[in-house]
Amino acid sequence: MVGKERSRPVESILREVQHLEEQGIKQVTLLGQNVNSYRDLSITPETERYSLSSPAFKPIYKYHTEGMHFVDLLDVVSSAAPNIRFRFTSPHPQFFPLPLLKLISSRSNIAKQIHLPAQSGSDSVLTRMRRGYTQQAYLDLVARIREEIPRVTFSSDFIVGFCGETEEEFKETLKLVEEVKYEMAFNFMYSLREKTKAHRALVDDVPQEVKRERLGRLNEVYERGRVERLNGMVGSEEVVLVENMNEKGQWTGRTDGNIRVTIDGTLPHDQEIGKRDFVKVKITGRVRGVPLAITTI
Predict the structure, then answer these.
(1) Which terminus of the chain has fewer Cβ atoms in its 10 Å neighbourhood, N or C?
(2) Taking the chain (297 residues) in consecutive chunks of 10 residues, what is each chunk's mean pLDDT?
């Protein structure tokens, strides 16, 4: 599909969410190419508008203050369906204004997990990618999100071997990943796509074996940070949405931060855990925990 981004009206999304709630659905993910650039022009709130952009981010395209924006949509649906946990993907780092962060922090049924695709840690590579931010602007946004949402988890996307990427530029990506310490990341070797600016103006000149070697090094740095973050969860209490039973007969599910957890043991007083239950779990090991009680969000 080509052309300008289009956003569904808030009212149609709200009706769908209410229908899902009536069916007993416990989690909804809001989806979009750049989901947080959402804008419904059919109505404009009477409240004062604010900058939609994250500080120090250069707009990647023009946007306007008119209409209902992503923070408005998320506010409406999470208020209307308090028993549903809401997630969203895939956002662009440009569109994380402070009101959105404060809403996520204050609303118990909005997941405290942010997908923050970086793609690279090198300012020069980010410029060639036309991403509209620097490494420092991205790190400042990470710090701002962690300040506003203390228990937030991060996931990201990274590409190694983008057109012209040097060893020094790649090391900037390693530096970023080591500093942020993501709970999840999707790391890929670059491949040229047709009908993109890179396809028209740049050359895919990083050898495949170099890309492969860099991907291995990136995965090693990412994994060390991921393990550190997951180990830091031990002793905490998390609300897990039960999804499936594994081959050992144990329930598994995901925390508010989208971490998959295996639930060891059973609940007291003959309570039975079922699929789609929210269960309070005490984390006893990396991605493992014991159930404390069936709960709500």
Answers:
(1) N
(2) 77 97 96 92 70 77 78 96 97 93 97 98 96 96 97 98 98 98 98 70 93 98 98 97 95 98 89 94 96 95
Residue 258, both tokens: 């989208």
- How many Cβ atoms are within 10 Å of 90's Cβ, its own excluded? 15
For the chain, the distance separating the N- and C-terminal CA atoms, rounded to the nearest angstrom, is 37
Instruction: Look up residue 107 and give its DSSP letter.
Output: -
**pTM reported for the whole predicted model:** 0.93
Options 3.80.30.20, 3.40.50.2300, 3.10.450.50, 1.10.340.30; CATH for 10-231 is 3.80.30.20
Does domain 237-295 sit in CATH 2.40.50.140? Answer: yes
Look up residue 73 and give its amino acid.
L
Domain extent listing, the chain:
10-231, 237-295
| Spatial separation of the C-alpha atoms in residues 10 and 40, rounded to whole Å | 7
- The strand pairing partners of 221, in sequence order, are none
Instruction: Give the C-alpha separation, 268 to 61, whole Å.
Output: 55
